[in-house]
Amino acid sequence: WELTELADLFVARVRLHAPWGHPCILWTCDSWQTFAKHRCKKYDNRYSRPFTLLVHNKFILRPTANQGPSFVRVAHYMAAAIAWRPDLSNALRDKIVGRLVDEMQRYKKFYQHMFLKDKGIISRRKEWLDKSGR
Known about the structure:
The protein is mainly α. It has one domain (2-100). The protein is built from six helices and no strands. The chain has helices spanning 2-13, 29-39, 43-56, 73-83, 90-117, 119-132. It is elongated and about 55 Å long.
């Protein structure tokens, strides 16, 4: 859920429109895509490039082996918010994607630092590893 809150923050910060006005956690990608494609002929073109750039620039956080599949909702949501702005040129869309990728990198570094330096987290991790026999 924290990632979806970040998506909402990113949408507000970059002055995009939340798809259907929904926060990321409540948004349904499939329904939105169907709606958007019917409302806008060029939606697929405006959506696919931002989504591809987000994926290729590692905007999606990879889970650890025991966390399950990747959580791609945030990248879909961000690409949809970018695509829904018909007034944006391709160059401006690319610039927005670059800004989002930069912000996500800062969040990743912050959390990595926090998890590697926080003594409480380190001791709980050690306890968990000891109990699980790892």
